[in-house]
Amino acid sequence: MCGIAGWVDFARDLSGEHRTIDAMTDTLTPRGPDARGVWCAGHAALGHTRTSVIDLTGGVQPMTAEEDGRTIAVITYSGEVYNFRELRNELEQRGHRFRTRSDTEVVLRSYLEWGADCATRLEGMFSFGVWDVRDQSLLLVRDRFGIKPLFYSLRPDGVLFASEPKALLAHPETGTAVDLDGLREVFSTAKQPGQAVFRDQREVRPGHTLTVRPGKVVERRYWALSARPHTEDLDGTVDHVRSLLEDIVLRELVSDVPLCTTLSGGLDSSAVTALAARWQRKVNGERVRSVTTTYVGYSENFRPDDTRDTADAPYAAELARHVDADHTDIVLDTAALTDPEARKAAMTAQDMPTTVGDMDTSFYLMLRAIRQHSTVALTGETADEIFGGFRWVHDDELVRSGTFPWVANEKRQPGCANGQGRGLFDRSFLQKLDMDRYYADNYHQALAEAPHQEGEDEREHLMRSVCYVKLARWLPMLLDRSDRLAMTSGLETRVPFCDHRLVEYVYNTPWAFKTFDGREKSLLRAAVKDLLPPSVLDRRKSPYPVTQDPAYTRALHQELADLLADPNAPVLPLLDRSAADEVLRHPKDVAQDWPSRMNVEMALQFNSWLKHYGVSLEL
């Protein structure tokens, strides 16, 4: 996996602009610690940092294609194309010759053969930019679900692009202004497609290409979910899901570097781990490596909260024994979670504060620890979105609330009356944000996009809509978080459940099939029931864990007191001082009240973000 950056200016010769493209590329070093390169000529400058996964010596970038001794195209690419071998064979039959074994060269040659339409032939996760020397055009491409990030900033005579906002901010002609639209993205848990946090930036939308020529920018959608009749019965559907999963996991195990799975002991990650274990034994006789995150004393002292019934570690250990995995528990303590450098790293990895608190820090620490022995990690993400795993999906009041069900669910939580992470912010600031209107507009836009089949009854129509808004507004937020927190340690995370073939198939499967046994994720459970022990198979959905150590809450409160005592803290004008003082007057030792705790964590993160990035707020 890699970091990409580029600058195109049709009014300037960028051949001598190494310093600028170097600065942009250097910000992405954590995404690619194994190699680095830049290419500058004419109106284009491209940069690349590499985490080597396939063809460790041959996939150096930016990669050029030559014809008659001259360069005709240059690519900077991040991702994995899982069908690259099949594409390579087809391209060779069409006369293309390859000098490496990398999927990068396959993507480049696919562009030379099919132009922008090459995107429709690529299966996997990817973002890339191709500078076509022949017609002086730039093509930007992002995968179907936006697994790999791709930001850009249009300039008067061209464009800047990169894997992360920090690379764009390294260009001398960009600034750190953030307006209300950007702040809504900071506080939102429903991502607006294409919207970025910093004012002058945008994201290439999932499933889209962007072509830039002198005086012309063309955005084109090359893929979208579609509604198709489902013709198989329940047994056939279960078998089809199993067949797809086996093929997907096998393809995603291809790697020239050490690989593992992240294992929570839940249905999703356990299914991936069990399938990976079976293939590893069959293909190369090796045990799969699995990794679980927990906290000191967490399993022994676990207390159920509003969304978590059980601790992960015992279930993960049982699954690991069941499939004979080479298993590791990563055990975190409060000192690690409160380490200022770790928390700063989690924030700067995403270039913004987030509303999920210690889940970011612990996730970052887990991924950093995994990178010490593995370069690739398969995860169970996306299964909840496509199979119906979240509890709020099965709450009729929430799915009929007229907004995103998870947003409606947030307001049920203690401390979230103003929305997740917004409890300590000033009322006038919140009125300017007007998140309720933002969510309403975003929700109805998403509903209007949702494809439906003819003849759906009311229940089927409703649940298909809910499935779509999860995929279109919730999932991009999770995928971006996973990529950014992993790649800041140079770790490639793969998401087998995000294969578009599986998503398309399950999206068009009737809701009654997805809940046929009266539980969540019925189809997935049935498809892998022979692979998992009964306790794991029957375990209820449990989200990513949060620490329950009261010392963590006390540490946060002390930080908040220090912030309130600092007259130079940039976040102070945005805070509700009385609400903050109330928190300090009545500290809670019940640390599992994590939604309330997020209010404190968001205020602290927001302050760090304003200082570290020198953000200019335009309210």
TrEMBL record:
It comes from the Bacteria. The active site is at C2. It catalyses: L-aspartate + L-glutamine + ATP + H2O = L-asparagine + L-glutamate + AMP + diphosphate + H(+). ATP binds at V296. Residues 2-215 form the Glutamine amidotransferase type-2 domain. Pathway: Amino-acid biosynthesis; L-asparagine biosynthesis; L-asparagine from L-aspartate (L-Gln route): step 1/1. L-glutamine binds at D103. GO terms for cellular component: cytosol. Signal peptide: none annotated. Its EC number is 6.3.5.4. One of its GO terms (molecular function) is ATP binding. Keywords: Amino-acid biosynthesis, Asparagine biosynthesis, ATP-binding, Glutamine amidotransferase, Nucleotide-binding. CDD domains: Asn_synthase_B_C, AsnB. The record marks E381 as: Important for beta-aspartyl-AMP intermediate formation. GO terms for biological process: asparagine biosynthetic process. NCBIfam families: asn_synth_AEB. Belongs to the asparagine synthetase family. This is asparagine synthase (glutamine-hydrolyzing).
